[in-house]
Structure formats: structure tokens, C-alpha cells
Amino acid sequence: MVRRKGGALINHSNSPAKENIVLFPKTLDYYQIQLTVMLESERYGEAMELLRFLLQCQGQEERHYEEWQSLLEWLEAAFPYAAHNGDDNTDNSTGEQDLKEEDMARILAKSKLEEDADYPNKLLHKVMQEPLSEATILALEQLSYLEGGQIDESLTGWLEQTAVHPLLQFRTLQTLRRRGAQGTIGLLRSGEMSYIEIETVPLANEEFPPQVSQVLERVAEQAEVHEPTLYYFAQELWGQFMMSIYGSEEYRKLLEGEDAQLDIWAGALHQMVSESLNGTRQEEETRAMYGITGSMRFQFEGAYRSLKGFVKSSLLDK
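and the corresponding C-alpha cells:
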């Protein structure tokens, strides 16, 4: 089975005419997930293409168009190379291209600082005071390239003293690690105080412990047979969920659990995504797929409730 990070690309040459395109809610959600993945993986050219496509679609709330337009303008200014050439460059390897984009981001951050001495404070304000959005993540990325211990102190103090959305908490921890910050930080995660070593915070999926990917591998095996489209959404939800519980007791229990515990989480993840996509709950069938016996049902339902609670809280915070 071939798995492609970030999902399918939009091929505009094979797309229907862009006039009068109306996106259904689930289709919009799919594209929003793709956009987030593209930004996370620094595929800025693809993200710009997707934003231009979305801006030509009809029937969405005005706030969506405003957010897309604002993000597109920011990306075009921040990454002009990607804006003109996309993410395909046959003359460079992927590593060279990533390095080039990182260098450009660093140069942009420093040039902004030279133009405006208050630029770091403006980025901090966007992160700390404005609603969580793609622009917030990009502001954190820019902060990664600016020097000065004051930024570390501001971000650390904010995390320790403020109730912050768990995904934004994790993204900020990643920024602190990229900036070279070290030490242990205590913050509220999943309703409890967690102590996290900044230098061990994963910067990519591959840096999470193997148990995290093993849950997804189990879902991939079942989805390939029963529901091929499910894996993509499961992958995105699981990644976001892991960020939200990182360092918590629930996270530690997952890592300490044996194969049966991983089966329980895989089954709960499959159930959550299948129910969201199809609108029906077939719990007995799902439990049978993953070998979840009656004695494991209580744990299965607990894992399912955790995933559902995360999804609900994420929707409410948007």
C-alpha cells in the first residue's frame, strides 16, 4: 500500500471549471486539513495554489475568504520563490529546496526585524492574543528565526501562566525547541500539570515514540480492507490528538501499554473517524476488527471518549 504524506494534490488541469464551484462541508474540511498539512510540511507553493483555488469557490462564509486571502498574501510575501515556481524544482533535491526555504524564512524574519524593531512583539501578540489559525502557526515559525532570550521568556511565561489551547501549546513548545531553549517547563495539559523537557519535544512525526505510529499502522491495515478513504483522516486526527495530549498521563499510559493497549486506541480511532465520515456507529464491528474483547470494552470506550472530546473542543475553539 502506498501512503502519501499530506494526501492528494489538486491537479487544476483535471479539475472542473472553477466558476460556480461550491464546496460541501466535508469537502471544505478535507481541503482545510490539506492546507494545514502543506503548511506544516513547508510546501508553501502547493498551499498557495490551494488557497487560490479555494478563493474561487462559492458559497462559503465571508470569514473563510478573508482568512484565505490574508494567508495567501502573507505566503506570497514571505516565500516569493515558491509563489513563482511552485514546489517543483527539478534542478534541486528535496533537501536543498527545504534548506532554501528555511534560509529564505530566516532572511525574511531578519529583514522584517530591521524594518521594524517591534516585529517580535507583533508576532508574540498574534500568537498570544489572536484566535488560533494558520496565521498563528506561521507567526510561531517566524519567531523560530529571531534571536533574543526575551522571546523565550515571553513564550515560556505565557505557557506556564495562561490557559492555552493544547495544539497551540504544543506548537509553541516546538518553537521553543527550534530556538534552542532548554530545561523543563510545567504546564496544564489534559486537565493536569505536566512537566515537559523542551529539548525532547518532537519536531516531526518521526520523532514521536514508535507506539504512536504503531497505532496508525493497525488502522492502515484495517482501512485498506474495509474503508480505504478512512486512513487519511485517521492520520490527521491522530497526529493532532497526539500533539494535544503530549506529556500527559494519558500519553504516558499509551507509551507504556502493550499490544492490546495499542489495539484499543487503533479501534477507537477507527470508530471515531468512521462515525464522522459515515454518520453511523458500528461499534461491535469495529471492536471485532481489532480483537477488542468484552473485558477491554471499558478501556475502548474511554479512548473513544478522549478522541471525541478532543474533536469537540477543537470545533468549539474555531
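(Above: one complete record from the training split.) The radius of gyration is 21 Å.
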